[in-house]
Amino acid sequence: MIGAVLAPFTFGLSFFLLGMYAMRTGFQNLAGKQMADWLSRFTRTPLLSFWVGLLSTFVLQSSSAVTVLTIGLTHAGMIGFAQTVGIILGTNVGTTVTTELIALRLETFAVPMLLVGIALWLMPRRLTRCIGLVIAGFGLIFLGIDTMQVMAKPLQQSETFRALFLESTHSVWLGLLTGTVFTGLIHSSSATTAITMGLMSHQVLGIETALAIVLGANIGTCFTALIASIGTNTASKQVAWCHTLFNIVGALLFLPFLPQLGAISAFLTASPSMQIAHSQTIFNVVCSLVALPYTKQIAAFIQWMFPGKRKR
């Protein structure tokens, strides 16, 4: 039983994370060198900062990477903390692009995309190699998802696992905690969401439990930023805590409305995977757009909560 679950989970997660790394590396080689310039130049207004955060997250395929980069720029004094609030809101929306792509269930194209990507990566031109790395990364991601879904059947037959998730159906708090801790351990909310999609597709999880796990994944992804802020200046720590508190507050506010969120996503699509993807998109877009007009107030609140050392 343990081997039947652990093997596909380990290999699938490894494929998935390797694919994310390959895709991110390919995008970084294409546009990553200009990323720091974009972040520092185009953050004059909250709306511009929002779009910079959204586009940067789409390019780097990691909200954590953009947040860590933002922490680095803040620590270097290239941008002020107040400018970063819009970026943080944008990263939360940008990360939903990956989730929506995963939900399209392109697993049948995994091996062809991987082979095409490798063939392009072996070409001499740098641009072609970068594009090949991105395509191969997508292929590995879908191969990882397909592999991880193999564990769904033995999990369904496990009395312990069924008892755990039966308890989760009575308490969405357990689902929230599961998503938070698991994402914190593997440093990828997209991987947690992909695993949740697979389990829900095989009717191991109900919609409310799955959504609670996804909300927890949004919180868990903040651990990387908190770690990156260790040893930095006050402004950088404020960036990390702003990202963390925003995701915690958003998750807690949405938690009582999971049945309604599930109903809306079920109305939009019958596919379990797409329901999770749409729910996460709705959650992040609503939270970010509601908070966007109040970026100055949010910045002031975070600065009040985490003030710098007073000069004597």
Automatic annotation (TrEMBL):
Protein name as catalogued: Na/Pi symporter
Membrane listed as a keyword: yes
Record's keyword terms, sorted: Cell membrane, Membrane, Transmembrane, Transmembrane helix
Superkingdom to which the source organism belongs: Bacteria
Keyword Membrane in annotation: yes
Localization per record: Cell membrane
Main location: membrane
Protein topology in the membrane: Multi-pass membrane protein
Stretches that traverse the bilayer: 6-27, 48-71, 102-123, 130-152, 172-199, 211-232, 244-270, 282-306
